Amino acid sequence: MLVACGFAGWAAAQSVQESLILTSDYLERGVSKSADQPALQGDVSVTGTAGWLAGLFVSSTQYETTQARDAELDLYAGYGRTITEDWHARVLIGAYWYPWNADGSGYDYAEVACELAYRDWLSLRATYSPKAPRVVLPEGLVSVAASSAQVSVQQPLGRGLFASAGTGYAHYGGVKSLDYAYFSAGVDYERSPLSVSLYYVGTSAAAKALYDNGSGGGRWVGTLIWRF
Q1: Residue 4 has pLDDT above 80, yes or no
Q2: Which of 30, 182, 203, 225 is spaced 20 to 30 Å from 151 by Cα?
């Protein structure tokens, strides 16, 4: 419904962007969604002249090491606008499906994200999901309300190089709530149509209890993106 409203609001498409991505680990808020294994991803997005946007993101996934490789389908839509010359805001709504997961719809969830950016070097992001997946023993896989907040900074180094860093905090509710902090720091190199990044990503110890795969802690992650 929300996606349909977004498409109806376009007078004409302003831009279409397609990306093919290979990453050494598919991380979300510092925790692996591919069991610490490489993931192949694709993204198609359309931005409208009135600020509306929508897209489809696809990735290979593996929440648990005992499960077979799966796929994530993320259909998202949103609206962005310029507040002042320096400040930009965006709201995104995403629906995540795992149609071939052995646990059926247990990992499916929806999320809303609000983003605020200052020029090209500072960004703030807050998310909320009324039904996010997590593992609580002895019950196993459950759905709980979850939220997060993070801040990121970026500094151009010249010749296509950028240094970036960020930190955030995630909260998962339920009878046994779970809270953890996460951070990242690294560099990006962009030379159209390719970009390469190398980051060190870490979490506090509590993140290891989010899923059965025990993913968390710290690791280096490399990503290659081809935009066409």
Answers
A1: no
A2: 225
Q: Nearest to residue 182, comparing CAs of 168, 172, 199?
A: 168
Domain boundaries, the chain: 2-227
Closest CA to 39 of 29, 50, 28: 28
Classify domain 2-227 at the CATH topology level.
Porin (2.40.160)
Closest alpha carbon to 215 in 23, 22, 33, 24: 33
Instruction: Decide: 70 and 63 in contact? Cβ < 8 Å.
Output: yes
In this prediction, residues 60-70 reach a mean pLDDT of: 87
Backbone angles phi, psi at 207, to 5 degrees: -65, -25
Predicted pLDDT of residue 10: 33
Residue 99, Cβ neighbours under 10 Å: how many? 11
* Alpha-carbon Rg for the chain in angstroms: 18
